[in-house]
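Handoff note, outgoing to incoming analyst
You'll be picking up this chain. Sequence as last confirmed:
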Amino acid sequence: MTATAPSAAPAWGRGIENQRRANLGDGTYRNPVMGGDYPDPTVLRVGDRYYLTYSSFESSPGIVLWRSENLVDWEPVGPTCPEPWGSVFAIDLVEHAGRYYMYIPFMPTSWSRVDAPTIAVMWADDIEGSWHGPIDLGLRGYIDPGHAVGEDGERYLFLNGVDRVRLTDDGLATVGDVEHVYDGWHYPEDWVVEAYSLEGPKHVMRDGWHYLVSAVGGTAGPATGTWSSWPAPAPSTVPGRTCPPTRCCAAPTRPSPGGPAATAPCWRARAAVVRHLPRLRERPHRARPPDPPRTHRLDRGRLAGGLRRRPDRAAAPARRR
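Most recent structure output, in case you need it:
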C-alpha cells in the first residue's frame, strides 16, 4: 500500500501593510498570531474588545496600541506617546474606576531625558482617545511596574525586586516610601541561568485571594533562564520555607526563612518550570529537521473572544504491509 503524503499547510494570509496574517480565512489560524517584534505584551479586555501594547524601546512615537475582537486578528490603533522620555521597557496597561492607565519604565539612552530607570504614568478616559502624560512618579532605579488594588480600595505598584509602593487614589503619584515585600523563590545554585533577576511582578485577585506572579532567571538566555513563581491559597511546603497565603494586598510579604510564618500573612512562592534543561551548555547541539507548520481551528463560544486553539494535524500516512 502506498503511503499518503500529508496535505500542505495553508499559506500565511496578508494583513495591514502586507504583514503576515495569522487568520487563514477558513476557520483556522497559525502561530504566532503577530509576526514581528512585540516583546513584553500587556493585554487588557474592554467589553468584547482586547487591547495590547508592548515594549517599544527606542521607537518614536512610541507605545503603539493594538486592538482585537478575537485575540488572533490585531490592528493598530496608533501610538500613544509622541515623545518617549527614553527607551520603553515592559508596561502595565490597566483600567481602574473607568479610567485607563499605562505604567511605563523609561530607560536612559544617549538621547533620553532621564539618566536612570524612571517609572512614569499616562492616562486616558477613552482608551482609543488622547493619552495624557507622561507624569513622573519619582521612582528611580526600578522597572516592571505591576498595578494592584487592595480589598480596601487602596492602589499599589509592585516593582522589580519585589518592592511595593502605594499610589494616590487617582493613580498619578506615590504615597510614602517604597518597601521590600518579597524575597523571591531561589532555585538550586547549580542551575544554568543568566542571572537571578527577580522581576516582572504582576498581581491578580481571584476568589478573594491575591496572586503575585514574578520571574527569575533572566531574559537573555540560556533556555533555563525563565521561571515564574506565585503565592497560592492552598497550604504547601516549598523547600526552605512554609508560609500561609495572604488575603491582604498590603500584608507583610517577606517569607519566613526556615519555617512557618506564625505572626503575619506573607506571600508563599511556588515555582513553575517554564523551561528547564539542567546543564544545557554541557550538551552538544544536534540539528534536527524543523517541525511541520500547524494550524489551529477557530471555534466560537469557548475561550476569550470565542476562540478555541486546537492543533489541526494531518492524517497519519497508512503503513505499508
